[in-house]
Design goal:
single chain, mainly beta, Beta-galactosidase, Chain A, domain 5, nine-stranded antiparallel sheet, about 40% strand
Length: about 290
């Protein structure tokens, strides 16, 4: 198992170090003149990213757990090899095993612009999974899935980079880019609904799965005087979520009064957009996040 000491010895990269984070879990810490950020080996979980000249972009719950076997609340949970509850096993963990697995750091290097790129990998079920994150003036994350060794049949999976964005007040933000996309409304009986033709605004619990879309989204936050752009490739689903009051109160790792501070815009392949991975092939889901 990789330790802080072994990681520091193996990866000597200026602007990168490893240390024990919350709960004693090992994290990589990035501090360069283009960006700062953190990622835990637990779940390969990005917990912060702050490009130079901007406020932090990702939201973290102050009630998050940092325990083996438990997901971290906030940042960028990796949902894999399924999204949401397991289709047939109620005892299986929500959003799959990836976000509570212990990942191994395989690469760390300085990028051309002076940021830091890190790659981590793990095995989940019959899959080999690699996660590459580039902490720079943009945040680029790629989840690449391949059949594990010895697999002889096609495999199907869902995935999501379940990004929590920090906002001034969710009641005062809007999301554009999905006006022409139909969606599943999970707060209204998972009904499939037609495109609204309008920007997304938040007046209550919101949990929508937009399907068959590769659209770029824009999160407009006048309270922070910024727009966050979310571009993607290898993803046909975008999930938009805010738990609002009642659901927040039901989540022990989510503060009752934290819901106005965040919105999730998730880069995914879920439901009818799930991926059928043919033998000897791989799939990459990529998101690029930038602040304007
Ligand atoms: O992405 C939206 C969602 O599927 C919501 O339904 C809510 O459950 C959220 O994910 C968080 O899930 P978690 O298992 O992390 O509490």
């Amino acid at each position: 198992m990789q330790t802080v000491l072994s990681l520091c010895k193996q990866f000597k990269v200026p602007g990168l170090h490893f240390e024990a984070g919350h709960g004693g879990l090992t994290k990589a810490v990035v501090a360069t003149n283009v960006a700062a950020g953190e990622i835990y080996l637990h779940g390969a979980h990005v917990t912060s990213w702050q490009p130079a000249g901007h406020e932090p972009v990702l939201w973290m719950s102050r009630s998050s757990l940092f325990q083996p076997g438990k997901p971290i609340r906030g940042g960028v949970p990796i949902c894999f090899p399924w999204f949401g509850p397991h289709a047939s096993d109620p005892s299986a963990p929500a959003h799959g095993f990836a976000r509570t697995a212990l990942w191994e750091v395989t690469e760390a290097q300085t990028t051309v612009e002076g940021g830091i790129s890190l790659s981590l990998q793990t095995r989940i079920d019959s899959f080999s999974v690699r996660f590459t994150v580039e902490f720079g003036s943009v945040l680029q994350m790629t989840l690449t899935t391949e059949p594990g060794p010895g697999i002889s049949v096609d495999q199907r999976f869902e995935d999501a980079l379940h990004t929590y964005f920090s906002v001034s007040d969710v009641r005062n933000v809007s999301i554009t880019g999905l006006e022409q996309v139909r969606y599943i409304d999970k707060v209204d009986g998972a009904l499939e609904k037609p495109a609204t033709g309008a920007a997304i605004e938040f007046t209550g619990e919101t949990d929508r799965v937009y399907l068959k879309t590769d659209s770029e989204c824009h999160l407009h936050d006048p309270g922070r005087n910024r727009t966050i752009t979310i571009s993607k490739s290898g993803s046909q689903s975008t999930v938009v979520w805010n738990p609002w009051i009642a659901k927040s109160a039901r989540m022990p790792d989510f503060g009752d009064h934290e819901w106005p501070e965040m919105v999730c815009i998730e880069t995914a392949n879920v439901g009818s957009d799930s991926i059928a991975l043919a033998l000897n092939t791989s799939h990459s889901t990529t998101v690029v996040i930038r602040v304007q």
